[in-house]
Structure formats: structure tokens, C-alpha cells
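User: Before I run my own analysis I want an independent prediction to cross-check against. Here's the chain; please return only the C-alpha cells and, at the end, one sentence I can use as a sanity check.
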Amino acid sequence: MLGECQVRRGKYWRIVAVFAAAGALAFSGCASGSDSGDSDTPSTPAGSSEKVEEIANSVPEAIKSSGKLIVGVNIPYKPNEFKDPSGKIVGFDVDLMNAIAATLGLTPEYRESDFARIIPSIQGGTYNVGMSSFTDTKEREQSVDFVTYFSAGTLWAQRPGAPIDPNNACGKKVAVQATTYQDTDELPAKRKACTDAGKPPIEIVSFDGQDAATNAVVLGQVDAMSADSPVTAYAIKETNGKLEAAGEIFDSAPYGWPVQKGSPLAQSLQKALEHLIENGKYEEIAKNWGVESGMIDKPVINGAVN
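Assistant: C-alpha cells:
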């Protein structure tokens, strides 16, 4: 959500697709997100945890009395949030939010939304919290508060036998999801460095969805892809040897859950996550999705690094 589809989903708003993948492969367990706005149909929560009265009592009264935690989410962004073959919303973020909500004595209700509408909908009170791999940035903190829960960086992937150096990719085609940090910041800066040095520019090939960007590498339509580290790691695993990491993770930054500015819900979420870290549930969920390398030791409110 350097992450919301973070966009590194993370730094900027998601927009309409600028490129479509020709002959893209279809991976099982993934469905495209809603392009028409919010959906009133929530997913069925998965996983469980136990209510902790002291933490649950810290939840704002309006939310507590409703018994629900309304969560705005944009999909797909594997492995954090996507749909399984039955259409159920699943993923690392989902399992963690289910455990958070249970700790707070609430039932999570996931509402699909365009990525760009989640934070404004939180500000307007439509959603209590956002859950879409959002990168906590200082710019976003002017509009909402964030509770950090994960650390993600950028990681490139390539086809085996076709090595790419992320720091010297001049003249190469690199796939990204449109409006992610990689699309708006990382690759434009690297492309400029190439041209400033008199070398051919990196050709940035942008796709509306991450699956299409991944498929483009697998199909040989591009030389490499750049995405948030958990996304790339999952894509490598999912493609069963058709992709491998190119280089190491860099530019790490925190993912966070956005809530209304000044809302005490931020403290409630922070306490709930601290509890899940202490009892081992957080680690269990992260390991289940293979993203344990991004675990954090202590959640903070508004932990942006830039």
C-alpha cells in the first residue's frame, strides 16, 4: 500500500493504467481490484485471535459500539492483499488485520476501493482504517495518522540467466506498477542518471496491476521488474523458478495503517500490534506468507523516514 499499489503504493496515488500487458499469463488466486469505486460486499474474515479487554476498551466509543472495524482496501497486491479463487480477500495484511480486530473485540469489514480514494474516505469517516500496503510518508502524515506494522524496500527480479544490475540498467526495459514509488521516483532518477552519463535511458514500462508487470518479465517482454520487496519475493516464489532476485533490497521504509488525524484508534491499533508481537502471532502470520524479513520490533505512530 514504500509501499498502498502502496504507489510504491507507497508514495503516490494510484491512477488509471498506462500500459496493458499483451498475452499476459493468468496466475491463480488473483482478481483485479474494483475500478468503479467502493464495494459494499465485505470479505469473510480469516484467522483468529483473542480479545484483550484492556486494549479493546481503548477503542473509540463509536467504533466499539458498532462492533465493526471498517477497512478500506485496494487489491490485488500479492502477497499482502488479493483474492483467492473463491473471491475471498486474503493475504498477509488481511491475516494481520483480522488478528488486530479480534484483539480489539471487533469484526473487520473489508470494503474494496480505488487506491486513491482510501485516505480521503478515512478523512471523511467512511472507513476507520486503510489496509493497502501504504508507505508511511511525511506528506501523507499531513492528512492522516499512521500506525507502522512492517518494513519494505525495493527489490528487482529478472529471468534466470539474464542478469540485470539495478544500479546499471541503462538501455534496459523495466516493468513497474503504475504510480508506485518505483514508477515515479526510483526508475526516473536512474533513467536520468543514464542520460546524464551519455548512456541509453532505461525504458520504464508501466502496468496498472503488479501481476501484469510480473508477467511481462516472465514472457520476456521486458528485462526486469522493480517492486516492493515482499511483492517481488512473492512473485519469485509464485512463478516457480521463472524469476529470480536481481541485486539486494534497498530504500527500506515503513508500511502503516492510516486512520483519521488525531483519532485515538491509532493508539488502539498500536497496542494491539504490540500485543501480537509479544505473543508471537505477528511472527506466525508473517512467516506464513514468507515476509518475515520485513517484521518490525515496535510499532510507532507516524514513523515516516521521508
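Sanity check: The longest helix spans residues 181-196.
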